[in-house]
From TrEMBL:
PANTHER family: 4-CARBOXYMUCONOLACTONE DECARBOXYLASE FAMILY PROTEIN, CARBOXYMUCONOLACTONE DECARBOXYLASE-LIKE DOMAIN-CONTAINING PROTEIN. The gene is pcaC. This is 4-carboxymuconolactone decarboxylase. It comes from Lactococcus termiticola. Pfam families: CMD (PF02627). Residues 36-115 form the Carboxymuconolactone decarboxylase-like domain. SUPFAM superfamilies: AhpD-like. One of its GO terms (molecular function) is peroxiredoxin activity. Gene3D superfamilies: AhpD-like (1.20.1290.10).
Length: 123
């Protein structure tokens, strides 16, 4: 596997604009973190057993459960849409988290998703 393959997968999932945003935000302060994120897309997300669509759902539900992950959650909700999840499926997955992660974290996740969905409508 190569760094370029990880970058290609990252762009496929979260989009070129979001990928460039990650790189730009880290280039001066912590370029190694950008390298690690691309390697995560190469070494973890590109593994063969789970498809990329399932991996994005796992990612967004994990980010909701962690809390305090708004920037990453927004990028990965876009990734979930890019990999074929519908708005309804994403929201249903968040609702499923209520007994496990709690209302506050789920409501915050839904708010972030709503912001993204509204931004997409205005484009």
């Amino acid at each position: 596997m190569t760094y370029e393959r990880g970058l290609k997968t990252r762009i496929e999932v979260i989009g070129k604009a979001n990928s460039d945003l990650v790189t730009e935000s880290l280039k001066d302060l912590a370029p190694i973190v950008d390298d690690w994120t691309q390697r995560a897309f190469e070494d973890v997300i590109d593994r063969p057993v789970l498809d990329i669509k399932m991996r994005e759902m796992i990612t967004i539900t994990n980010l909701v459960s962690q809390g305090d992950t708004a920037p990453q959650l927004k990028i990965h909700i876009q990734g979930a849409l890019n990999t074929g999840w519908t708005v309804e499926e994403i929201l249903e997955a968040f609702i499923h988290l209520i007994p496990y992660s709690g209302f506050p974290r789920v409501l915050n996740g839904i708010r972030i998703a709503k912001e993204l969905f509204e931004e997409k409508k205005s484009l």
